[in-house]
């Protein structure tokens, strides 16, 4: 339909253009004299109409402009018609879509209504079935209540009989437990007496064993002390003999020997102190404290005795334990230095 309208419009434009060209040609012919005249005599004046080319061009230009304007107007009109047609087509399509949607919504609503009706019928059927089942259940419950009431009466009767039997049983159990408790106490008393007897026997055996071990240790200590005293006596006798022969030489050497003895005594005292501190179990509370230990040694460095000579008591106990752990100290070859070291005092001060 739109194409037919476009063809008619173009046809009209062509007709208008042909009419305009026809008018132009008529105007040109109108201004020109095409009449045939007979030859005049030479003396007569020749009359002629002159056509102005500028006027002709102006007319042609105006006709072309009018034609272009008409063509442009026609194209504008056609474009407006096309836009209107497109808008109408879009509106038509939108209306069709809306109608399709309304139809789909209607079908959906109808289906929902049918489903709702089916659901209503199903619910009604289920309610009817549930009502029937409830009636049956109520009837069954009534029968069950009657049976339960009868069973409860029987149960109470049996319960009362069982209670009476339980009272009698509990009475018998109480008498039995009382007899068993008396028997258990008698057995426990016998076990306790036996345990005390066994404990006394064990304690006596332990005391005897400890006394035996203590006696053996005492005898061993006396033996070692006797050996140490004998060794000391022998060493002292040997030293006395030695010192008797060296007494004159010692007096001659004078102060140089005395300084040597003092230096060596100090050097070995430092060695002894280092050995003691290496075996000392140091506690944090010992830091900054001192203990003076006096040791008596044999000539070969064997510990004979050690005791506190002042200072912190806890540190002194630990120092004595360290001295006993060392038990023997290195001795020099010089008898005079050995004699100084046999009775020595040391200051232990852990850092």
TrEMBL record:
GO biological process, one term: bacteriocin transport
UniProt KW Transmembrane helix keyword: yes
Alphabetical list of SUPFAM superfamilies matching this protein: TolA/TonB C-terminal domain (SSF74653)
Annotated stretches, region: Disordered: 106-232
NCBIfam families to which the protein is assigned, alphabetical: tolA_full
Protein name (record): TolA
Pfam families: TolA
Keywords: Membrane, Transmembrane, Transmembrane helix
Membrane-spanning segments: 12-31
UniProt key word Transferase: no
InterPro entries referenced in this protein's UniProt entry, alphabetically: Tol-Pal_TolA
GO molecular function, one term: toxin transmembrane transporter activity
Gene Ontology terms: cellular component: membrane
């Amino acid at each position: 339909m739109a194409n037919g309208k476009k063809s008619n419009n173009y046809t009209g434009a062509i007709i208008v253009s042909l009419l305009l060209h026809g008018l132009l040609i008529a105007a040109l012919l109108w201004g020109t004299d095409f009449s045939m005249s007979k030859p005049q005599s030479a003396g007569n004046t020749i009359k002629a109409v002159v056509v102005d080319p500028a006027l002709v061009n102006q007319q042609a230009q105006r006709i072309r402009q009018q034609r272009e304007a008409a063509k442009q107007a026609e194209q504008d009109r056609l474009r407006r018609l096309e836009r209107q047609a497109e808008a109408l087509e879009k509106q038509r399509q939108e209306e069709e879509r809306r109608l399709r949607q309304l139809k789909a919504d209607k079908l959906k609503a109808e289906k929902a209504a049918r489903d709702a009706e089916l659901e209503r019928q199903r619910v009604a059927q289920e309610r009817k079935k549930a009502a029937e089942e409830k009636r049956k259940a109520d009837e069954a419950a009534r029968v069950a209540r009657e049976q339960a009431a009868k069973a409860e009466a029987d149960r109470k009767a049996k319960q009362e009989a069982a209670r009476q039997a339980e009272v009698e049983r509990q009475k018998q159990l109480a008498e039995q437990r009382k007899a068993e408790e008396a028997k258990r106490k008698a057995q426990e008393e016998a076990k306790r007496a036996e345990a005390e007897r066994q404990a006394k026997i064990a304690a006596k055996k332990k005391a005897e064993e400890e006394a035996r071990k203590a006696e053996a240790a005492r005898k061993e200590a006396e033996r070692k002390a006797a050996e140490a005293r004998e060794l000391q006596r022998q060493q002292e006798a040997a030293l006395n003999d030695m010192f008797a022969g060296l007494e004159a030489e010692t007096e001659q050497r004078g102060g140089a020997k005395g300084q040597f003895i003092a230096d060596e005594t100090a050097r070995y005292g430092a060695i002894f102190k280092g050995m003691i501190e290496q075996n000392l179990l140091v506690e944090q509370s010992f830091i900054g404290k001192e203990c003076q230990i006096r040791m008596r040694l044999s000539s070969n460095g064997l510990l004979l005795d050690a005791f506190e000579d002042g200072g912190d008591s806890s540190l002194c106990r630990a120092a004595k334990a360290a001295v006993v752990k060392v038990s023997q100290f290195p001795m020099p070859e010089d008898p005079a230095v050995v004699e100084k070291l046999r009775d020595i005092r040391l200051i232990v001060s852990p850092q």
